[in-house]
Amino acid sequence: MSQTLFFIIITLIKCLLIIAIFAALAGFATYLERKVLGYVHRRLGPDMLGPAGVLQIVPDMIKLFTKEDIIPYMSNSIVFKIAPLISAICAFLAFAAVPIFPEFSLFGHTIKPIVADINIAVLYVAGCSSLCFYAIFLGGMASNNKWALIGGARALVTIISYEGVSGLCLLAIVLLTGSMSFIDINNYQEGGIFSWLIFKQPIAFVLFTIAIFIETNRTPLCLSENDAELVAGYGTEYSGLRWGMFFIGEYASMILGSILISLIFLGGFNDFYFIPGFIAMILKICFVFSWYFWARGAYPHLRADQVMRTCYLILLPLAAINLIITAICAL
C-alpha cells in the first residue's frame, strides 16, 4: 500500500472515529450528569434500566428520534432547521486539530492521533468554537418566541465577551511556547509536573476555565437558559432530534473544553511518573470534565449583570495584564 493511500484511509478512519466516539460519549455524558447531580442532591437519578440505570440513554435516544418535530408558526423555518446542524458540525470540526494521545506505530506506519496537525491549530480551534454560538443565536432568533430570542441574544453577548478572555489567555500560551500547534504546546510540558503550564500561567488557567464554562453554556455562568427566567432559553421551541443535536453539540464542546484544558495546562499526553501518557490524558480529561457537574450541582445561576460585570471589570483586565507580563518575560 502506498503512503498516500494509507494516509487517506487513516484520515477517513480518524474522522469517522471522532464522530462516532464523541457523539456516543456526548450521549453517555447526559447519563453521567443526571447520576452525579442525583448524588449531589441526595436523590437516585436514573436507576431502573440496567446496572445503576446505565441503559437509560437507550429509551432517551429512542424518544428523541421518534418524537414529533414541531416547527413553530411564523418562525423562519430554514434557519430554524439549520441552527442545530451548525451546533453539532462546528463542535466536531474543532476536534480535527486537537491531539489526544501520543503517536504510535501500526503495520510499520507512524499513526498520529490527530486528523490535521496544522501550525495554526490554536487559531483554528478558536475559530470553530466561535461559530457554535451562531447556532444558539440563530435558533433563538428563528423560533418566533420572545424567551428564545432573549436567551439567544444573552448567550451571544456573553460568549463574545468571554471569548476575549479566552483569546488573551491562549495568546499568552502562544507567546510562552512559541507555537500555535497543540503538539508543540504539549511537548513544551515534557519536563515533568512542574513544567506544566498551570504553574507557569495560573491566571490564564483560571480565566480560560471560566471562559470555557461560558462558551459551553454551563451553570452557573450560563445565560442562554435559566429555569427561573427563560424556561429553556434558545431551545424552548425545539423538540425531538433537533433538540438532541443542540445538546450533542453542547456536550461535545464540553468534552473538547476538557481536552483543551488538559492539553494546554495539565501536561497533555506526556507520561506522568509511571502512568503512560495516553492513560494520564484520559484521567485528566475525566477529572476536568467532572468540574462541569460539580459546578452545576454546587452553585446557582448568576444574574446577567453579575456575569457581564465580572467579565469587563475583573477578567478582561486580568487577562490583559497577564498577557503583558508574559510578553515582557518572553522577550
Note the run of SSEs as H and E: HHHEEHHHHHHHH
Distance between the termini: 48 Å
Query: What percent of the residues sit in helical stretches (DSSP H or I)?
Result: 55-70%
Rg over CA atoms, rounded to whole Å, is: 20 Å
Beta fraction of the residues? under 5%
Arithmetic mean of pLDDT: 84
Shape: globular
**Tally of contiguous helical segments:** 11
Kindly give the count of domains.
1
pLDDT < 50 stretches: none
How many β-strands, per DSSP?
2
Biggest sheet strand line-up = 1-2
Protein name: NADH-quinone oxidoreductase subunit H
Catalytic activity: a quinone + NADH + 5 H(+)(in) = a quinol + NAD(+) + 4 H(+)(out)
Membrane topology: Multi-pass membrane protein
Organism: Campylobacter canadensis
Task: Give the topology, please.
Elements: H1 3-40, H2 57-66, H3 77-93, E1 104-106, E2 109-111, H4 121-142, H5 146-177, H6 182-188, H7 197-200, H8 202-215, H9 240-265, H10 277-298, H11 304-330
Antiparallel strand pairs: 1-2
Helix pairs in contact: 1-9, 1-10, 2-9, 3-4, 3-9, 4-5, 5-8, 5-11, 8-9, 9-10
Task: Give a concise summary.
The chain has 331 residues and is an all-alpha fold. The protein is 66% helix and 2% strand. The chain has one domain.
Structure description:
By secondary structure, this protein is mainly alpha-helical. It has a two-stranded antiparallel ribbon. The longest helix is centred in the first third of the chain and has 38 residues, at 3-40. The model has no long low-confidence stretch (mean pLDDT 84). It has one domain. The protein is built from eleven helices and two strands, in the order H-H-H-E-E-H-H-H-H-H-H-H-H.
